[in-house]
Design brief:
This protein has 2 helices and 2 strands; from the N terminus they run αββα. With 64 residues, the protein is of the alpha+beta class.
């Protein structure tokens, strides 16, 4: 039953994501509605985990 296995995997994935939200590692964010009219699920990762904000400008090392 591939369909049943997919549902189980989706449920398990959702449980992991919810655990990460409760622990403060992820934060759900609003997204514009997708093609089918429902907004797709999106999460931000806590900046401490990735070493800063995603909005920072990347530094390019000077040429040697």
């Amino acid at each position: 039953m591939p369909g049943g296995r997919r549902t189980c995997t989706n449920l398990r994935t959702l449980q992991v994501i919810q655990s990460l939200e409760r622990a403060g590692f992820l934060r759900k964010v609003a997204a514009a509605p997708g093609i089918n009219g429902r907004p797709p699920p999106r999460w931000d990762v806590h900046p401490v985990l990735i070493g800063g904000s995603l909005a920072e400008i990347a530094e390019i090392p000077p040429p040697r």
